[in-house]
Amino acid sequence: MNKLQLIVLAVVVFLLCATPAMAQAPNTSVLSGASIGGGLGAALAIIGAGYGFGRIGSAALESMARQPEIAGRIQTAMIVIAALLEGATFFALIVCILIGGKVTSSF
User: For 31-99, which CATH superfamily applies?
Assistant: First the structure.
């Protein structure tokens, strides 16, 4: 038996053994206003981030086209601003997930 077949067999055995161990009772939860608001907040954060990245990219490319001699400095500034925007977006998504994760139970 070659190594690939042995690895595939081991993965299949682990998956079959993990199924009963991971079994849980069905969750009868109800969506609350917080979870809907969290989803809408996450959607708005992603839309805003996409718009921001588009504006950063278009402005940087326009500046590089007008002054090619300082394209390196513009690209560095663009990357720094994009990283800051990504961090703020990630923070907003985490807040939305934490707010939306509070699902009320029906029992």
Answer: F1F0 ATP synthase subunit C (1.20.20.10)
